[in-house]
Design goal:
35% helix, three-stranded parallel sheet, 25% strand
């Protein structure tokens, strides 16, 4: 379930989206799949980042390359 409607944010093409505490990456993948954004997603939990990578890979497998970019980062507080 997505809790962010990126179309309502009225971000311009090429905007940078920062997803802090990305968890399994559902919002990061959704933003990248729109193709208008450069997404950076970060989390402290390495297991969640691995799930986020799997989610992005699944999107690529099902739909081909993501139109937007998405970078995953391990963060520390």
């Amino acid at each position: 379930m997505l809790t962010v409607d990126f179309n309502k944010l009225r971000l311009k093409g090429g905007a940078r989206v920062l997803d802090i505490g990305c968890g399994s990456g559902r919002h990061a993948a959704a933003a990248a799949s729109l193709g208008r954004f450069r997404v950076t997603a970060a989390d402290t939990n390495l297991e969640d980042l691995a799930k986020a990578r799997e989610r992005l890979d699944q999107h690529r497998t099902m739909s081909g390359p993501l139109p937007g970019s998405c970078s995953l980062l391990a963060a520390d507080i």
